[in-house]
Amino acid sequence: CETCSKEEAKYRCPRCMKYSCSLLCVKKHKLALSCNGVRDKTAFVSVNEFTDLNLLSDYRFLEDVGRTADAAARHPTTHSPTTKKLLCCLRNKARKCNIDLRTLPVGFTKRRENSTTFNCMEKKFYWHLKLIFPHCRAEYTLKGVPDDKTLADILKPYIDPVESDPIVCQRLKIYTASPQSDVQILMKIENRKQNSIR
């Protein structure tokens, strides 16, 4: 057993391949390594190590993807007139504002999480934003950000040395300590080739 090093190992973790002797040791190893115990279906396997089991695993993975896509296509909200009408209205409003609004198909997590809306009374968009700070490996999601709010105002609660929350400020220390002129704001270009990082 790779956890207690006392008993003979009976189990092997499908995720990290660690050997364990009992349920207690399995739980300990999951806590220690933050392992969920679920096999990574998309893990890279070199051609030299590729076996019939890997081929079967890939085949089952593709079948699961097909079933999930089929279930998403049959989901009642896909064909709901209300959903289509709201989406069509949102696209039309965006087009009038010279915004190229693109949506993911139903079933995608990003589509489910997105809370972007258009307020007809105020005639403005309220965006769903995800701020990613790569040097600190931190992500923050903002909902209902008005389209007239500047990027400087959006970032103030995160990287401003005076106005930001102390806990957030500590986590994003590299950004708060740097001069504001050194902080670059980049937006990922969508619909690019898979390996593109532009």
From TrEMBL:
Residues 1-35 form the HIT-type domain. GO terms for cellular component: nucleus; pre-snoRNP complex. GO terms for molecular function: zinc ion binding. Gene3D superfamilies: 3.30.60.190. One of its GO terms (biological process) is snoRNA localization. Keywords: Isopeptide bond, Metal-binding, Phosphoprotein, Ribosome biogenesis, Ubl conjugation, Zinc, Zinc-finger. Pfam families: BCD1, zf-HIT. It comes from the Eukaryota. Belongs to the BCD1 family. Required for box C/D snoRNAs accumulation involved in snoRNA processing, snoRNA transport to the nucleolus and ribosome biogenesis. Interacts with FBL, SNU13, NOP58, NUFIP1, RUVBL1, RUVBL2 and TAF9. Interacts (via HIT-type zinc finger) with the RUVBL1/RUVBL2 complex in the presence of ADP. This is Box C/D snoRNA protein 1.
